[in-house]
Amino acid sequence: MPPLKWTDIEDIVIALEEKHPDVDIVNMRFTDLWQWVQDLPDFNDDSQKSNERILEAIQMAWIRERGL
Fold this sequence. Notes:
CATH superfamily: IscX-like
Number of strands: 0
Number of helices: 3
Radius of gyration: 11 Å
Helix content: 40-55%
CATH topology: Arc Repressor Mutant, subunit A
Strand content: under 5%
CATH architecture: Orthogonal Bundle
């Protein structure tokens, strides 16, 4: 698999769900989400390319993935 970038939202969500299956994704802090994405083993992108819109998109996709 090629390295994950901030724009790989669906792949990021799958990896986050595997690593953090019990986290409260509705009430999470974006600072935590930002760090968790960067801590993924396949993630390799500039931390400065992230913004609130991207983090919100990841959160919403994660909520959909869980069926909440």
